[in-house]
Automatic annotation (TrEMBL):
Entry GO MF terms: kinase activity
The keyword Signal is annotated on this UniProt entry: no
GO CC terms: cytosol
Key words of the record: Kinase, Transferase
Protein name per Swiss-Prot or TrEMBL: Sugar kinase
Domain Carbohydrate kinase PfkB intervals: 7-290
Pfam families named among the record's database cross-references: PfkB (PF00294)
Amino acid sequence: MNVLTIGVHIVDVLARPVESIPHGQDTHLLDQIRVTAAGAAAGTAVDLARLGVPVASAGAVGADELGDLLLMLMERHGVDARGVVRKPGEQTAASILPIRPDGGRPSFHVPGANLAYAFADLDPALVTGARVVHLGGMDVTWGLHDPGFFELLGAARRGGTVVTMDLLSTMPDLMAGARAFLPYVDHFLPNEEQALLITGASGVEEAAAALLAEGPSSVLVTLGAEGSLVATAAGTARVPALPVQVVDTTGCGDAYCAGFITGLLGGREVLDCARLGTVLASRVAGGLGSDAGLDGLTAERLDHLAHENVQGLHAGEGI
């Protein structure tokens, strides 16, 4: 196994374009409705699997029909979902996403079984046996805020496993708990709002520097249409977003993580990994759902696309 994703698993129901909620019993006709496997762990795992990367996922779903559907979707795309446990009495986490014509994505969300996932549910051998462990949504998987899990991550890293992490929410009250994971993480990939909230910094460069001081060897702050900021001990760089007709921004962060991890597996430098993440996120933004635009895409093709676009990417000084 190359990658293990741990954390948030969600069923997304997406519809577009939605300009307003119908009054009373009225009906609005739409262009598209999709159901996808999403969440910071499941969404990243599906994107990796679709690139041909061997990947397993660990987390929790309910013992319900939505859980059946989520596991089926993951396994259909090639994710080893045996590490996903069923929680009787809990609903599988789900979101309804009415996508606006400009790609904006308000949501209706039930956190469900993600809140019930605990360290005792995790097989330690999955962690120590992976080349890369991706922590997806540690701000909301409170059952993993456990000294035993921190010890396991430390042991895995000493054995050569690389640990990446991103977050799910932008809730200030959850940021302090997520910060506790940083000493056990090699590469941290928050979005701009999360980076500012977790540090209290006034700007993204200040936030990235503060996060580096917590332990990671690199911090990659995604900036939406502005691309991303890449920070290491050697300095910072900017990787602009690629031009794309945005349909839906759902899952772009997960795609960025999947592209970044694919680069790590290929032995790429951090900045090159960020470029792979940028390309994959742009593909997802052009369609509906967290795995849109990935049909026929492989890790090799992703690398080729990144090289094609590298002349248009303007890196800053220091890396």
